[in-house]
Amino acid sequence: MNLNEIGEVGLIERIKKKIDTKDPHIIAGIGDDAAVIKSDGRNYTLITTDMLIENVHFTLQAMSFSQIGHKALAVNLSDIAAMGGVPKFCLVNLGLNKKIRVEDVDEIYKGLQALAEEYNVKVLGGDTNFSPSGVIIDMCVIGEVEPEFLCLRSGAQAGDSIFVTGALGAAAVYLAKGKYFPPTPRIKTARAITKTVKVHAMIDISDGLANDLHHIAKSSNVGALINIEDIPVFPEADTELALSGGEDFELLFTAPDAEKDKLLREIPGKTGTALTCIGKITGEGIKIKRGDGKISLLSLRGYDHFK
Amino acid sequence: MNLNEIGEVGLIERIKKKIDTKDPHIIAGIGDDAAVIKSDGRNYTLITTDMLIENVHFTLQAMSFSQIGHKALAVNLSDIAAMGGVPKFCLVNLGLNKKIRVEDVDEIYKGLQALAEEYNVKVLGGDTNFSPSGVIIDMCVIGEVEPEFLCLRSGAQAGDSIFVTGALGAAAVYLAKGKYFPPTPRIKTARAITKTVKVHAMIDISDGLANDLHHIAKSSNVGALINIEDIPVFPEADTELALSGGEDFELLFTAPDAEKDKLLREIPGKTGTALTCIGKITGEGIKIKRGDGKISLLSLRGYDHFK
Fold first, then answer.
1. DSSP of A247-279, one letter per residue?
2. What is the pLDDT of residues A195-205, one digit of tens each?
3. Domains of chain A, with CATH numbers?
4. pLDDT of residue B303
5. What is the ipTM for the molecules in this complex?
6. Per-residue exposure over A200-213, b if at least 16 CB sit within 10 Å of its own CB, e if not
7. Which of B31, B51, B109 sits opposite A129 (nearest CB)?
8. Smallest Cα distance from A3 to chain B, Å
9. Contact flag A113-B18 (C-beta cutoff 8 Å)
10. Which of A3, A41, A128 is opposite residue B102, by nearest beta carbon?
């Protein structure tokens, strides 16, 4: 069977079925933003990894080497944020071809380190390899979270309010102009949120609002109804880009409706990050209410690596 | 500056100087087989990562997909073994091109899982990506070690005996025939060794005996003298292949000379793994004693990704 017959989602589902993740130390494995492990200390360990490949996840035309280093770390930090955790360490594997100069590697590390220092993340090391074709940068980030602040994708409950941070569509607008939008990993905001209320489910918006809402709904076995007019849209973007555009790395989360006013009152002031309630978790069906009041199904959107 | 002017070793040295690894929780970072972290539990956490790239670390001609999965995990388990630790979890990132079929991915996981089950390692998840050129498999393994059993590269002392497990040159002999030699990650043997004596320094032989002896000597700021006739050579290999051939993934370690007899008596019986004393740690100079009694410098050998 060709990969395009099954797609990326199908492939991951297939792998998930084959691997045995039953272990008393695994709190969450495949299928959340980061793996969650209980070791012999009080806090849980978080581990996440992402591979960026030239001409798939970045181009040398649209991004500087420093921006590539920034992105490689930022996408992983965002995964730790979405678990309610704090990043601590990272490992970097590089695949470099003959066109790459030593100074380019310096720049990759410069971009990466500037972000690492901002979040007090230490680079533990890694590996450098020859790559016969494009540049590859693979990162692994280790973090931790107190059990009471852990946010999974799977805890959303009917009646919850649904929130997003920031404004959506920024990365898509920049991409259309051949530019890189440097995302802010929402670690400080996520920590403030989990310390303010009991979050039921959280994810970072890497695949676009529509897809990531589907991820939460599927993991939690619930539905959702969002109001199109309430979606915070980045300047120059439109609602469709806000729904479909990936890589904004804002947070999407659900919390009890009773906590809504408290969140909207406290979080923007505490963190400087905008927060918007965009709808509610329902029993089933992932739906969107248009401006004219009509309700329709919110379809999956966006990119599949193998289709 | 081009990468070939500085080489892989030069590049890693350059990166090492630029990154800040001062942190009370980092016991060992860049420059050992795995990073060692002290978290809030009693045991240290070990983390290691390796990237395998098609036509650099493997070819689809010489290796089956199942063997590629095996190798990706084996090289990382070997790093955990060299720290004296026990592997627990792994994450897998795949880069797949259009030629790869779903069944090939099944086979990668089959090879990987068979080895994972043997060592009770759980797959936590990972990422699948499109790769425009060759197949990429990147793994991260998390393990743990009791502080008293931790083996670094940096503890060798003048007067120590130097030991290797197994026989060397196997991977080089297989490679010359276009075949894959499936290494045995020496986890059980390393654990038996660290529980029998106080190991001063340990490394896995991934870059060849000569290079990895240099790594230990440099990290420990000592010299070494090995006897060419004592090197255990794999059938069909010769001494030069045993010195230069990488990817055997046997253990190279040093321990007090007074423990030599105990190690040689107990370890093979306990573990089924051959153990040989090949020489001694000295004050300075990395040297080899030839069959005729002449002593010469043991030069660095083997492969540099960028030269």
1. ----EEEEE-GGGHHHHHHHHHHHHS--EEEEE
2. 999 999 999 99
3. 3-148 (3.30.1330.10), 151-297 (3.90.650.10)
4. 64
5. 0.91
6. bbbbbbbbbbbbbb
7. B51
8. 6
9. yes
10. A3
